[in-house]
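Model the whole thing, not chain by chain.
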Amino acid sequence: MKAKFTLSRFSAYYGSHRALQQIDLLIPTRRILGIIGPAGSGKTTFLRSLNRLNDLTAGFRRQGEVRLDGEDIYGAEFDPIALRRRVGMLFALPIALPMSIYENVVYGPRMQGINTRSQLDQLVESSLRAAFLWDEVKDRLKSSGLRLSGGQQQRLCLARVLALNPEVILLDEPTSGLDPISTAKIEDALTMLKEQYTIVLVTNNTMQAGRVADATAFFFMGELIEHDETKKIFTNPAQQRTLEYVTGRFG
Amino acid sequence: MKSHNLREKGVQYLLTALAFSALFGLLLIALFILKEGLPFLTQVGLKDFIFAHDWEPQSGKFGIYPMIIASLWVTFGAMLIGAPLGIACAVFLTEFVPRPVMHTIKPMIELLAGIPSVIYGFIGVIVLAPLIRTHLGGPGLSLLAASIILGIMILPTIISISTDAINAVPNSYREGSRALGATRWQTVYMVVLKAARSGIISGVILGMGRAIGETMAVIMVAGNAVKVPGTALDSVRTLTANIALEMGYAVGLHRSALFATGVVLFIFIMLLNTLASAFVKQEIRRR
């Protein structure tokens, strides 16, 4: 299995607080990696380190390496803007930008200088279809993205990421604010998408990792406790703490 | 229990009375200006007042057209200078420097608002007017000088309100945009400024209200000649300057004419304030 991301001895700090400690992890291509762990265990920091979004946070520092296809993404040569176009991200709270549905989807491509109308039209349709949103919004592409329901906004955000044509999609608790039906739609979309994309899914819902992730990593207090095939993590984990967490005895 | 209730009621009545006294003051001023100014308008006629070019109180000519034009041009010029500078400064403070730097610089800028306008005027007379005279020509005391001084004077208003508007844009918009591979500037331009738009516009409009109402600094640097300006280097007299300059010795119809000038100014400023609050309301509704 080919590695998309390789982390070696990666640590992250906010000021003097260490959020991640010496993480070593391989993220394989075109599979879904689930990240589970209690609140404050460093899951989100881990995710935001993969597209360097933490760079925007005042006081953030890191040590160690993250390699994407063998290239050090924190290296001096590496352009974080280009990185974020290859590594898309979906947040816990769906944040449609304050513009129309259409403009939301083409925002990323436009920022890269794609302006041909036909090309954008086609991107909008294919991205919205892949995010299972097309049928619900095709007649009102010009209306504001902020008027959609929470579940629709999250799928709009997914479409927006897909329009970038990324290699990796990072998801930070993408269904935490959604009802079960919207959650099922997102999970369906993810299962389809792993044919084409490498997916990293941070979730507070342990069962969600069990449903969709191929491999699962358990984080606790900034440390990677265990990482294995999802089936193994949920049925026969090597660590006692993992067992206690997935069976709901703590956390 | 009973005395407790009594005190509550007493405080409530007192506060109501105080609140209305401010409103009452405003009402009195408005009534007074109208009472003094309206008879003049009925006597001379709106057309011979607002659209006539000659202001010769001694011979009964009361045309304020040149001053209306001067006020509008000076305000427009101040906007041309103050709005881009102020908005750029607000964007810089909120998006491009660390928070602590912003929290140091912003109060310093707001301090600019506390400098008396006569000081601005003084600097205008001593520094700016000679510069304009030697480098660009004309008398120096001019429409251009007034615009520049006013443009600087309204900076604190525009910067302060724009900074607050930009800070109120949720950070999730910025992260969402950056995560899609937009650069910092693209994010500011496409998302942040759009989301903060109505707040910024109301800041600019409030600055405009300040510029059109400013008197002292304008009297000192504008030159005060009553004529429609041909270029920015001509000397002009604004509505406010006209009232302040002649109030001391005006009697009879002349005095009424100055009050009527005040009515015109009052209407201008009311229009601007209504416009500004309409934008603020629109912003609140959208959240």
